[in-house]
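hey so i finally got around to running the thing on that chain from the lab meeting. sorry it took forever, my laptop kept dying and i had to restart like 3 times. anyway pasting the input first so we r on the same page abt which one it is
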Amino acid sequence: MIRLTLVAALAVSFSTSALPAAAGSEPAGHSHEMEDFSAGEAGNPNELSRTIEVTMEERDGKMIYVPDLITIRKGETIRFVIHNHGELDHEFVLATTEENLKHAEAMALNPDMEHDDPNATRVPAQQTSEIIWKFSKPGQFEFACLIPGHRDAGMFGTVDVK
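ok and heres what got predicted. didnt touch it at all, straight out
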């Protein structure tokens, strides 16, 4: 299984060359660090403003987050507690819609990609994970599941930072 960070995934989507044939069989062996994220930065657990619970599930042929709209004040540090109540693995990737769409293209090439970035987590079925995030920038951002087919099935939501 290959282990790529969001930065590496974005690099793959911008690349004009295909992944090497053996890329899916061995770990990538390197890591990239992203210092500047579009939606803010990794948060300090000692500076929490509040906790927001998010549920992921499959329902009536759709894949959804509940809630799918979250309003945040600029400067807040949020602990997202992400519960996967579904039968499938899902992700929570926080970025702009454009960044998530590019990352989804990379995921289509490597659906078992694991994330090692503070703005993303993959949550196995019936498990819980968390992300602590400081929203230091205003704007509209997206959280989405970028496993192939999941975003298309409705698994995305909006964070409105005022």
